[in-house]
What we know:
Distance between the termini: 84 Å
Number of helices: 8
Radius of gyration: 30 Å
Strand content: under 5%
Order of helices and strands: HHHHHHHH
Number of strands: 0
Largest sheet: none
Shape: elongated
Structural class: mainly alpha
Helix content: over 70%
Amino acid sequence: MTEMTVVVPRRWAGWARTRHLAAMVVAMLLVALRHRHTSAAPPRRHPVAAAVARGWPAGLALLMTVDMWFAPTVFAPWTLLVLPAGYLLIGTWRRQWGDRRALAAQLAGAAGWGGLAVVATVASADVAGVLVGVGWLVHAAWDAWYHRTGAVVPRGYALWCAVFDVAVGFTTLLAVLSR
């Protein structure tokens, strides 16, 4: 094994072996921890790349609904209960209920979609399909509101949910019309 030799002036050799070395290391660490480096500006992206980066949840929702456009089906009325449940769960997880009006709006929405699901359950097949399709489309407007305000759920989730809901709503109505 070879030794590594560091060439330093003779007067530094004794100094480096003393307690000053420890003090110097401590001082360097303090400076390194306290000094704030200014971060470089993020690189500018091409507008198309920036739009894709912001809109990937919409692309994912479209990808998830491709088969619905080729084989539209009528979703069961109970699926309307999934819509407000997602927002209630995510809002609770994110601790968004400090404003009682937001919680009241979510509970009113849950009651509305629950009532719509009950009516669709007892209605004829065609009326139920229309009610379910309209319920999903109305929820897309609900999602658009939360995407705009950024409240309750993350904006990306609201975007994904809005696109998904529009696709489910329209394909459900298409399935009813094609009977």
